């Protein structure tokens, strides 16, 4: 600060302001980690309190949402494994329902779900009989190591395992051939019907051969293409009875003996919402809001857990673990959601591109757990339904019930469905353990899935998941925290859920671009943390400021990266030697920062490699991705559309060699240009 006799004052100002920015952001980042809080669910205590001696249970009702769009970008095998793991989880079968949202309206997904429901009739009793983990068949059959046998029939296990694996291979083959079978069937039906009906020439036909598919056709036509098709709802598996139903004994047609196993399956519903030209369908957030309305009319569970199509239940106790925190007598009533960390399969052993992001999940979110709770990160999260309806948490509710209702709910806030509005009081009752029979008609269910239903309402604003921001997950979590709700971070062993991550650098960069661009959008929107009211904890506000402004650092960091270019222009600048006091100051500061980093690794239970990978990929992000995120915000501020965010594609891979080959498949994209320039400048200098 005392040496202002620089021959380039603009450079001096960038340096000073940059150091100030780095110092302040680092300090704010540390403040939010001063009270890390590790929460461990006690599932045995939950069983003691809620499981009944006769085999019944007082556990609350639960709705499970799973979303997918494209069977190519999100392979069917991953999606159906996720469904199977959910159907087989260790939760009372009559107390949860699964809602599968196919946002592409594809017949492949519809018939794939039928095949999964058919296979589940054997897979789910097998899991219960032998207590296998994990309960996604693809992960289970290819696991290298398994724990000790915990089932009830050890002598039958090897034969059952062999038969079940053969049945799974047959299921996979049928799943792989589904697209070709539908195409061949449709061509045959079109030839048979095309003579009489010209409009049938390109139709896609269902398995009965006499019914046209209402959703997207293989050869798109008016009213049957992506972005334009009617709503479809089909209950694949009905609500099971309350009493156990034992399976079939072994026979020549059915070699597996399930005569001592409960063979019931939970409710399973297929949903494809209506899409029409001229409407912004709001991608995943819009699909989940439709699931929220449909599930309220059918099962109306007080708790909801959501999954992406490539995530599966890795620990069958995960649902019970989240319920532990929701029913916690200390602060469970004020908990809006329980967030589990994201863990991934198919990542290279050294996690080269920091897919696990353990510094964020196991350090940052653990620190937030001691304040108001972690942010919502998109998948593997259990919600309290009424929190999504914009209700106040108990500690912030007015004493007068009428005043509480008037303060939050406005006319036409939820739409015109009286059945949906009438379902809201029951959704607030977390002690309700018996599902209410659905009394709504097909017309009302169809109306809840239409594009026009949300016109003039608060859906996507103050109700449900938030619209018009790329990171709708973080913004939705912020809206709940801003209302006064808290959240809980729950990490358990084995991991609750696992998914598939992009190990290709190009796909990973696009993923980081969507996150960073969405974070800046949030800061410059009405959801800016600086504008939140007093219900948001001061340290939680600081955390959200960090989460929404971190891409701004790219300007100063890139300037530092490019400073060596001065050595390429001799005589232009005079670089003075650092005086001893400053050199000592720099050494102490760097040593202190690194020491604090090591301490953080220690209490978060991380490894040095996790920290190194996080630092490495941060450098890649600040040079290649964050500048594009800044450009996106600049364009948006000028009224221009901005950068188009690409959804992350997941590829179906075979063995380890084939899987990791994608690691080295670098596809050239403009995002890599700044990084290459920085490298070239430093090498040349």
Describe, in plain words, how this protein is organized in 3D.
It is a multi-pass membrane protein. InterPro entries: Cellulose_synth, Nucleotide-diphossugar_trans. One of its GO terms (cellular component) is Golgi membrane. The chain is α/β, with parallel strands linked by helices and 685 residues long. Among the domains are: 207 residues, no CATH class; 241 residues, no CATH class. The chain has 22 helices and 11 strands. The strands form 2 sheets. It has an 8-stranded mixed beta sheet, with helices on both faces. Strands 6-11-8 form a 3-stranded mixed beta sheet. β1, α3 and β2 form a beta-alpha-beta unit. α1 packs across α17, α16 packs across α17 and α16 crosses α20. The longest helix has 30 residues. It starts with 8 loop residues before the first helix and ends with a helix. The model has no long low-confidence stretch (mean pLDDT 88).
State Rg: 27 Å
Tally of DSSP β-strands: 11
Strand order of the largest sheet: 3-4-2-1-5-9-7-10
Structural class: alpha/beta
Proportion in helices: 40-55%
What is the CA–CA distance across the termini?
26 Å
Overall average pLDDT:
88
**Largest sheet data:** 8 strands, mixed
Could you tell me the strand content as a percent range?
A: 5-15%
Oligomer: single chain
Name the shape in a single word: globular
Uncertain segments are: none
DSSP summary: helix tally: 22
């Amino acid at each position: 600060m005392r040496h202002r006799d620089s021959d380039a004052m603009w450079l001096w100002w960038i340096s000073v302001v940059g150091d100030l920015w780095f110092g302040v952001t680092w300090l704010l980042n540390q403040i939010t980690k001063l009270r890390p809080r590790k929460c461990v669910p006690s599932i045995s205590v939950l069983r003691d309190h809620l499981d009944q001696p006769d085999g019944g249970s007082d556990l609350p009702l639960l709705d499970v949402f799973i979303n997918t769009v494209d069977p190519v970008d999100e392979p069917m095998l991953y999606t159906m494994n996720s469904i199977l793991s959910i159907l087989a989880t260790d939760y009372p079968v009559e107390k949860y329902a699964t809602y599968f949202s196919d946002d592409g309206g594809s017949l492949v997904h519809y018939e794939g779900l039928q095949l999964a429901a058919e296979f589940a009739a054997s897979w789910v009793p097998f899991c219960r009989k032998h207590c296998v983990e994990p309960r996604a068949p693809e992960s289970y059959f290819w696991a290298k190591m398994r724990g000790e046998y915990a089932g009830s029939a050890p002598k039958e296990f090897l034969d059952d395992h062999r038969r079940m694996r053969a049945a799974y291979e047959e299921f996979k083959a049928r799943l792989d051939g589904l697209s070709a079978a539908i195409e061949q069937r449709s061509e045959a039906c079109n030839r048979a019907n095309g003579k009489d009906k010209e409009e049938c020439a390109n139709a896609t036909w269902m398995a009965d051969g006499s019914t046209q598919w209402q959703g997207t056709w293989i050869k798109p036509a008016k009213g049957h293409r992506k972005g334009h098709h009617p709503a479809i709802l089909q209950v694949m598996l009905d609500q099971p009875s309350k009493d156990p139903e034992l399976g079939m004994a072994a026979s020549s047609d059915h070699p597996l003996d399930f005569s001592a196993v409960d063979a019931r399956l939970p409710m399973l519903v297929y949903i494809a919402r209506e899409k029409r030209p001229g409407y912004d369908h709001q991608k995943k957030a819009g699909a989940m809001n439709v699931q929220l309305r449909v599930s309220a009319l059918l099962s109306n569970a007080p708790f909801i857990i959501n999954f992406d199509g490539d995530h599966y239940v890795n620990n069958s106790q995960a649902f019970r673990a989240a319920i532990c925190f929701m029913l916690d007598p200390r602060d469970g009533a004020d908990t809006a959601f329980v967030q589990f960390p994201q863990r991934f399969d198919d990542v290279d052993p050294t996690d080269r591109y920091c897919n696990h992001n353990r510094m964020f999940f196991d350090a940052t979110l653990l620190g937030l757990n001691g304040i108001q709770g972690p942010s919502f990160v998109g998948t593997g999260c259990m919600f309290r339904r009424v929190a999504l309806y914009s209700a106040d948490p108990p500690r912030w509710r007015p004493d007068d019930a009428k005043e509480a209702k008037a303060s939050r709910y406005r006319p036409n806030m939820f739409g015109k469905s009286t059945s949906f509005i009438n379902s809201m009081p029951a959704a607030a009752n977390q002690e309700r353990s018996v599902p209410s029979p659905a009394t709504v008609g097909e017309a009302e269910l169809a109306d809840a899935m239409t594009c026009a239903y949300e016109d003039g309402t608060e859906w996507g604003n103050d109700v449900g998941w938030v619209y018009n921001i790329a990171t709708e997950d973080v913004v939705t979590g912020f809206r709940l925290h801003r209302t006064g709700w808290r959240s809980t971070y729950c990490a358990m062993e084995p991991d609750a859920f696992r998914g598939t991550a992009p190990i290709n650098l190009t796909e990973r960069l696009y993923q980081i671009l969507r996150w960073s661009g969405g974070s800046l959008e949030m800061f410059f929107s009405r959801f800016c943390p600086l504008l939140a009211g007093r219900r948001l904890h001061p340290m939680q506000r600081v955390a959200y400021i960090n989460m929404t402004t971190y891409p701004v650092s790219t300007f100063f960091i890139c300037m530092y990266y490019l400073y060596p270019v001065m050595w390429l222009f001799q005589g232009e600048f005079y670089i003075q030697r650092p005086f001893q006091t400053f050199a000592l100051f720099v050494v102490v500061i760097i040593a202190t920062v690194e020491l604090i980093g090591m301490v953080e690794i220690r209490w978060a239970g991380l490894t040095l490699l996790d920290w190194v990978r996080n630092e490495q990929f941060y450098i890649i992000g600040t040079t290649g991705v964050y500048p594009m995120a800044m450009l996106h915000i600049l364009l948006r501020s000028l009224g221009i559309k901005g950068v188009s965010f690409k959804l992350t594609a997941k590829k179906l891979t075979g063995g380890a060699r084939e899987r990791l080959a994608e690691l080295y498949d670098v596809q050239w994209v403009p995002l890599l240009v700044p990084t290459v320039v920085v490298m070239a400048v430093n090498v040349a200098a």
